[in-house]
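Worked problem 6 (solution included).
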Amino acid sequence: MKYSDFRPRLKGDKKIAYDHLTRDERRILVIGDLHAPFELDGYLEFCQETYAKYLCNQVIFIGDIIDNHYSSYHETSSDAMGGADELEYAIESVSQWKKAFPEADVVIGNHDRMVMRKAQTSAIPTLWIKSYNEVLGTKWNWVERVVYDNVQYIHGEGGTARTKAKNDMMSTVQGHIHTQAYIEWMVGRNFRIFGMQVGCGIDTTSYAAAYAKHFKKQAIGCGVVLGGHTAINCLMEL
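Solution. The predicted structure is:
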């Protein structure tokens, strides 16, 4: 018997909530910026628990899977690992996420594409560059943008989720801004859309996050979108 075939002895509001939770629809876990290998200890387990709690059946990584600190256009830490070491640790870290979520969409973030940008700066043809899946050993679907149930998922380098939702007149989920986690609804006469920032999963004590040590506190969390109609922010207890 499938879990969805099981019917507990519930009544009233609990029965309504159960029926809503188990109906057949797309239930997406949205994982925040990881910046591997600098993600926070326990963030993977938190995302797994959130996936189970809301009976999710799909996963989207919202971008910046890897940090590529060694290849940054900004000044890197004098205590930083070399490129080969950082990438090796990142691959090892990503392998745990791959094991937990073998099928997923990944929205390409600005840190993910750092090496590709460096290649372009050096006039290296793209034919010389391996794919993300080849380098990281994943079988994920890497995209610039993806849409499900009339909700668009982007990394968010061009502003906030609320701004993008208003500009595109479309519900929007994004990451990129580590210090924000919110859902804002915009309601008009003929439409209803939301903008959602999902937070991140980076370890703020790592040297890769040192640039933000004087910023607001990072919002460590993930998000869930149910059928395109309901958005939920899930913040990790620290």
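Discussion: The mean pLDDT is 90.
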